[in-house]
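Per your request, structure below.
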């Protein structure tokens, strides 16, 4: 089981952590919500969360809670710019359907 970052995402996270002046990595997970069932959650981790699985990509630590890992196993988190919009993009091979607005998914 693994969750990875693209090089662009790792660079963005590293730069943001440096600007914040604190943090050990990012924490990914899922929560129940939306019209399709689940939504991603992403937050900066200021300490190593106890009980989380830990991965590393391009020098950035990625923490995932054990309940979320089966839903996002194999996911690559990318950072993309599309026109005037930019942000994180979850490339999750487990997704079966997504809602029309792109806010939620199911597996």
């Amino acid at each position: 089981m693994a969750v990875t970052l693209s090089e662009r995402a790792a660079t963005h996270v590293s730069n943001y952590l440096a600007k914040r002046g604190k943090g050990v990595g990012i924490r990914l997970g899922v929560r129940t919500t939306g019209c399709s069932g689940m939504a991603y959650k992403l937050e900066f981790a200021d300490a190593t969360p106890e009980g989380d699985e830990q991965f590393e990509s391009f020098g950035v630590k990625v923490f995932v809670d054990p309940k979320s890992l089966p839903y996002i196993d194999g996911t690559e988190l990318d950072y993309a710019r599309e026109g005037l919009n930019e942000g994180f993009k979850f490339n999750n091979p487990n997704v079966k359907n997504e809602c029309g607005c792109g806010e939620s998914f199911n597996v």
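The mean pLDDT is 87.

Regards,
D.
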